[in-house]
Amino acid sequence: MPSATPELISPRSPRVSAARRLARRNFRGKERLFLAEGPQAVREAAGHRDTLVELFATVEAAERYADIIGEARAAGARMHLADEQVIADISTTVTPQGLVGICRFLDTPFAQILAARPKLVAVLANVRDPGNAGTVLRCADAAGAEAVVLTDASVDLYNPKAVRASVGSLFHLPVAVGVPVEEAVAGLKGTGVRVLAADGAGTDDLDDELDKGTMGGPTAWVFGNEAWGLPEETRALADAVVRVPIHGKAESLNLATAAAVCLYASARAQRASGGCRSVTES
Q: Which residues of the chain have a pLDDT value below 50?
């Protein structure tokens, strides 16, 4: 059982100050470290090899999540018991859950993703909202995608809000960052992946694509900016520009919802008869 006395009680402690600075992008990039807050993220980080470096926990959280503390120690993370004010000072959430981890960057080189010949990929082109980026990553993980690519104009993968919105999926699948969209599309096409641009004004209808049986092969979906979608030059790079049909009166779907629909449509087609995966393949 942990000691009942926190070792870190001052927000001015050097360890606390170093952790707090990771809320800022320039410090994250310099140190190649980021914050993972809450039990779910910390558990996933502890289970991801050589990722969790340090863990700050209140006494109450250390007792409540003793299993996570054990996993963190087994992973070699340095453990710090801290009082609630210290955790609040480090955390970027309004209601901290008592656990904040410091993790090493874990993005994957784009060339390594291509070498694995992925069957389903989400490409985020100029996506600026960290909550949307994290949610699309979560959707991609749930749909069975093998990779996510964030272009050089997209939000920082390690923004605390993006990490939280991924709900642990950041630790589940390879993510490449800072890839120019032209390079991303060309590289994926070069490995035999069909590239589809998701756009509300697309000339091709998602339902029609499914009916025609054209979505069973390796596929990458390109998703654009939340406010203005994909520019014409990006749409022109794709093999097809596909819209999600609106059967009701809604004006449109938000980015994360549209991404979920598109990714799951591909996942189902790929697992159907004639698709690029068997029904038993993960």
A: 1-3
